[in-house]
């Protein structure tokens, strides 16, 4: 059965493509958009589910005008399925780096986590996943930023609004000052 019969294409257009095009058309700088999107994706793959929204909010507050909040949040939204697929690689990376024991991924361990009966081994595995993410995050951020800068330069050039001339901008400021 074709994928468009499930409505995935229209959902993707409504939830990802249209908001992205609105962001690009509003005239933000390509480097700012690239950094914000890379930051949102990097924070969006944080291995503890349900915390990425708050991490992105704190990053937006921390970076202020240097990042574009809608881009961070859209990237965080897009990163959710990727987050779930990267928990195990972050766990294994953390185990390798720390030299910790290999945590067996069984349904019993998942049941303990969900019911709140997490044992020491489960908590240690969460710490290993966090360590794996902490080590990988700067590389993820750097690679995504490097890949996104030319993409956003192209998108802003092709679909962005025409910036006003500096003289008109100065005139507006002078009129307000009077």
Chain-wise SSE layout:
Blueprint: H1 8-25, H2 30-44, H3 52-63, H4 69-98, H5 107-115, H6 120-159, H7 166-177
How would you describe the overall organization of this protein?
This protein has one domain. It has helices spanning 8-25, 30-44, 52-63, 69-98, 107-115, 120-159, 166-177. With 178 residues, it is mostly helical. It is elongated, with a radius of gyration of 21 Å. The termini are far apart. It contains seven helices and no strands. The model has no long low-confidence stretch (mean pLDDT 82).
Short description:
The protein contains seven helices and no strands. The chain is mainly alpha-helical. The mean pLDDT is 82.
SSE pattern, N- to C-terminal: HHHHHHH
CA gyration radius, whole angstroms: 21 Å
What's the β-strand tally?
0
The coarse silhouette is elongated
Number of domains: 1
Largest sheet: number of strands, sense, barrel closure: none
* Poorly predicted spans: none
How helical, in percent, are the residues? over 70%
What separation lies between the terminal Cα atoms?
Answer: 65 Å
- Class derived from helix and strand content: mainly alpha
Percentage of residues in strands: under 5%
Whole-number mean pLDDT: 82
Tally of alpha and pi helices: 7
Attribute tags:
178 residues; mainly alpha; 7 helices; 76% helix
């Amino acid at each position: 059965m074709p994928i468009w019969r499930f409505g995935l294409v229209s959902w993707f257009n409504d939830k990802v493509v249209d908001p992205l095009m609105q962001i690009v058309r509003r005239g933000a700088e390509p480097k700012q958009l690239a950094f914000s999107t890379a930051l949102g994706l990097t924070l969006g793959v944080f291995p503890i589910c349900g915390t990425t929204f708050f991490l992105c909010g704190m990053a937006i507050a921390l970076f202020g005008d240097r990042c574009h909040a809608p881009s961070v949040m859209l990237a965080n939204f897009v990163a959710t399925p990727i987050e779930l697929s990267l928990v195990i690689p972050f766990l294994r990376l953390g185990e390798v780096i720390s030299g910790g024991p290999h945590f067996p991924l069984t349904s019993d361990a998942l049941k303990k986590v969900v019911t709140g009966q997490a044992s020491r081994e489960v908590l240690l595995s969460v710490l290993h996943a966090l360590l794996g993410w902490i080590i990988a995050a700067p590389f993820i951020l750097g690679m995504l930023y490097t890949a996104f800068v030319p993409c956003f330069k192209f998108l802003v050039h092709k679909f962005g609004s025409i910036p006003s001339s500096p003289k008109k901008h100065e005139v507006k400021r002078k009129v307000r000052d009077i």
